[in-house]
């Protein structure tokens, strides 16, 4: 009974003191598995980036782990998984498929891919300045931001206080290890007692 109460208190403290993941560095050092959207330029970006945290993320957790958006986000919903995907498409899928409980469990890391609008033109193109001025007007007038907000509405969490954080299996691993050690010691004691009893029976 004492062991049960003490370990329950330990789990409660563990859940309350869990260090939040706020950066790519924290994600690399965590036990969370990672994956990325199956598009070619994501992998090219990771291979050419000069950011050490992103390089470590690719080498340790992302290399070869690419999924469709549906598969990746469904795995995120199951827990203990981070998925690199564009926010617009992800928001739309989450709004359609995720419950409020699932949305409240989500965490979003700051983006590290530039999502500003660009138009590719020849270096000596006479349209270069026209596009530059036009895109600046779109950005400065707020039209770009307004369009993003209309097309990609971020899912909101309602009644977050009513949701509970579940205890994961590796949060309880120490009690299972302790249990296995206890079982092993019990078997050793049992075998020792049987050998001792048979020895005394043989003795005249």
UniProtKB/TrEMBL annotation:
Question: What residue ranges are annotated as transmembrane?
Answer: 176-195
Tell me the compartments it is located in.
Answer: Cell membrane
Regarding the membrane, this protein is recorded as: Multi-pass membrane protein
Q: Residue span of the signal peptide, if any?
A: 1-23
Q: Which GO terms describe its cellular component?
A: plasma membrane
Keyword NADP (UniProt): no
User: Does the record bear Coiled coil in its keywords?
Assistant: no
Q: Which UniProt keywords apply?
A: Cell membrane, Glycoprotein, Membrane, Receptor, Signal, Transmembrane, Transmembrane helix
Spell out the protein name for this chain: Ionotropic glutamate receptor C-terminal domain-containing protein
This protein's species is Callosobruchus maculatus
């Amino acid at each position: 009974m004492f062991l049960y109460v003490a370990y329950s208190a330990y789990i409660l403290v563990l859940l309350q003191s869990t260090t939040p993941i706020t950066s790519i560095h924290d994600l690399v050092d965590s036990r969370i598995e990672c994956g990325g959207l199956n598009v070619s330029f994501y992998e090219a970006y990771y291979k050419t980036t000069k950011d050490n945290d992103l390089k470590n993320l690719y080498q340790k957790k992302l290399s070869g782990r690419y999924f469709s958006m549906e598969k990746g986000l469904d795995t995120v919903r199951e827990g203990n998984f981070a998925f690199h995907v564009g926010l617009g498409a992800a928001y739309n899928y989450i709004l359609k498929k995720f419950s409020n409980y699932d949305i409240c469990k989500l965490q979003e890391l700051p983006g590290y891919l530039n999502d500003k609008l660009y138009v590719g033109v020849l270096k000596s193109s006479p349209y270069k300045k026209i596009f530059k001025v036009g895109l600046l007007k779109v950005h400065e007038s707020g039209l770009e931001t307004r369009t993003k907000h209309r097309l990609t509405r971020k899912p909101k969490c309602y009644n977050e206080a009513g949701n509970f954080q579940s205890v994961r299996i590796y949060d309880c691993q120490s009690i299972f290890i302790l249990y296995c050690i206890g079982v092993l010691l019990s078997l050793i004691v049992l075998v020792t007692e049987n050998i001792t009893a048979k020895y005394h029976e043989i003795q005249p």
